[in-house]
Amino acid sequence: MNTLELMKQISRPSSSKIVLLVLDGLGGLPSLETGKTELETAKTPNLDKLAAKGVCGLSDPVGPGITPGSAPGHAALFGYDPVSSDIGRGVLEAVGIDFKLQSKDVAARGNFCSVDEDGLITDRRAGRIATEKSTELCQLLDKQVIEDIEIIVRPVREHRFAVVFRGNSLSPELPDSDPQQVGVAPLVITPLSPKAQKMARVANQFVDQAKSILAEQKPANMILLRGFSQRPQFPTMSDIYKLKPAAIATYPMYRGLARLVGMDILETGTSIEDEFTTLTKSYADYDFFFIHVKATDSSGEDGDFDRKVRIIEQVDNTIPQLIGLQPDVIVVTGDHSTPAMLKGHSWHPVPVLLYSEWCRTDKVTEFSESASILGGLGRIPAVQIMPLAMANALKLTKFGA
Amino acid sequence: MNTLELMKQISRPSSSKIVLLVLDGLGGLPSLETGKTELETAKTPNLDKLAAKGVCGLSDPVGPGITPGSAPGHAALFGYDPVSSDIGRGVLEAVGIDFKLQSKDVAARGNFCSVDEDGLITDRRAGRIATEKSTELCQLLDKQVIEDIEIIVRPVREHRFAVVFRGNSLSPELPDSDPQQVGVAPLVITPLSPKAQKMARVANQFVDQAKSILAEQKPANMILLRGFSQRPQFPTMSDIYKLKPAAIATYPMYRGLARLVGMDILETGTSIEDEFTTLTKSYADYDFFFIHVKATDSSGEDGDFDRKVRIIEQVDNTIPQLIGLQPDVIVVTGDHSTPAMLKGHSWHPVPVLLYSEWCRTDKVTEFSESASILGGLGRIPAVQIMPLAMANALKLTKFGA
Question: Which residues of B touch A360 (CB under 8 A)?
């Protein structure tokens, strides 16, 4: 029996409430000047108070040494095995724009790009064209039918779009057409298995037609496709945990991830404050809330140590509002580390703070990487955070006689 | 290869001795007044001295967040995967009264209960009738034959009994007849799979006949059945570890669990002191001793913080006698936590103390939950305690060339 099956067996509905606050890319690395990470540099009196009353530790989203993408990082936080429940990039883009993927659809992530007269890529993102322009171009590519396959093209943001292939006998076993470098031509797509031959034919023809359709456009005169994938068949969080779960996220991808595990997606604004206002407004209607803060990750990816510090402080300011709602369980953590020093996701374990009346507090009195090493949670795989949250909410029955 | 297969491959017999002292439900939660758990409140100079010389840590019987019953808690301590080796309640009751279960037998746990003239349950335990009375009633129900199935009924303690169905074509895939509430009738048993149809027929007829036979009894005029199950086929601890293991336990269920993994069951009295006297007397005859202390769990379940503290202190008093025997390895731990604050089993990790000449001691100088967080064992699954004990007893050979 795997953990999800076990959780399904022992989870019980109850009126207690859990709030999972995810600061994307929370974990960091120390600044060379101060020896302190972003989280250790930030003034976080409210999180520190919560850490003092709660229990802390470090979690590995996938495993020690493994740098996770957003999808496995969040899958693990929701309690799903991050390796076996891997979600393709195409599916992520599609569900992230509220596109209702059907089970046999194959989705891919697209980039508008620029090619020169020889067809060689000069800019993989076509100068990050505006979303408005991209929306226009998507309309030019949308609604084609190749063989018996319907092709749906939707803008995402800037140069990014999602393409969905709908029809029979499609398999997602295709490599990317995006060579991930300039100065070369987009790759012709060769099927990775015999049953993907039709899909490869259709995809290559779609790319050829896009090239013709976009020929006169500037700078976006070509497309690149990657992450061909089908919607995974996950049991929902309601099935497993008997929860009524809701997601509050400003970025489409995280709403998409939450939708894949069956969360309701709440309308919210664009700021952290907006997200907490949404939480307060909808607090009575759900018993599980996933709140996603994106800017910790983006600032880390930009290498902007100070901005990441300020965003953590901004989140800290909202903590009294969260505590004021008196959730039975509060978990504050990240889906992975994004140290500004590395300008990208990293493998470093992520600090976890769990607060509940029953959490068996430890001696940790600040929320930080170095303090969490000595926390009562120890170092745990991120998939075990949901079972811990459920236990602390007294939503689990005993296992075995 | 799973851990048991690995252990089987590398375990070697030797003259060294291991004592596994299990304080049932040892782990606790801090009192709101003092901020200290039961174990932290208890004066345990002897255990603290042992902790200072040994190595400490925290263990998860099943996994973080999972509250284990006694069976998975002990299975894990004996080194068996607690999920795949789940043992049914019926089997537990039967083996706990020294009943020799055959491999095709189906066992169930029974309660004598009280029903009103409409057949609705008024007391699920019939006022906890005395064991003597229950023994009488079991004799009335014993030795029936329904279809070709022989039915054996044995008293356990107070209102509890074990019933064993013996014969061909029986399957344990039945739900309980016990609705776990009063004011309703006992449930008719519906088979959970087609091959359990005969077993369901026989069980329902047995319940009907019990109703007739007990009709004039007061207050125990009906029965409830639960935990239909068959004896699991475990490899014994001798097979796996090449040990000659013995169990010392005052409660039948724990003797039953020990018997399922092939331990000899030693006659003992009813007190902790009796158990240590038994240990001393039999010390020469075995190389592995499992000593089970029940009262830490019962006091925790009663919510009696102070009594749990006193029982831990009573165990502490016996530690010099244990050390006097000079075992090569001493392990002191619990099968799960039972915080008095929660009045029941819980998911919190359990302190573990391992002492041997070769244990690589840490800086922990007291045996407690909060000190164990910083211990050299870290936070480990309970199934890894036996491999550690075996290694410290120098009973394991090198793995691999």
Answer: 29-30, 37, 348, 369
Cis peptide before A219 (omega within 30 of 0): yes
- Residue A49, pLDDT score: 98
Residues in B 198-237 with any Cβ partner in A closer than 8 A:
227
The sign of the torsion formed by the CA atoms of B275, B278, B279, B280 equals positive
Boundary (domain end) residue, out of B207, B229, B251? B229
Does residue A305 sit within a domain? yes
Tell whether A202 and A99 lie within a shared domain.
yes
Beta-carbon separation of A363 and B342 below 8 A: no
pLDDT in tens, A328-371: 999 999 999 999 999 999 999 999 999 999 999 999 999 999 99
Domain that holds residue B175: 92-229
Instruction: Report yes or no on B397 lying in a domain.
Output: no
What local confidence, expressed as pLDDT, does residue B1 receive? 59
> What CATH number does the domain containing A283 carry?
3.40.720.10
* β strands within B311-358, DSSP E: 329-333, 350-356
Q: Is A100 on the interface with B (CB under 8 A)?
A: no
Number of A to B CB contacts under 8 A, please give it. 94
A280 phi, psi to nearest 5 deg = -60, -40
Residues B207-266: pLDDT tens digits?
A: 999 999 999 999 999 999 999 999 988 899 999 999 999 999 998 889 989 999 999 999
Helix residue spans in A242-271 (DSSP H):
252-260
Q: What is the ipTM of this complex?
A: 0.88
Q: Which of B38, B40, B67 to mutate to test the interface with A (most CBs of A within 10 A)?
A: B67
> Are A176 and A240 contained in the same domain?
no
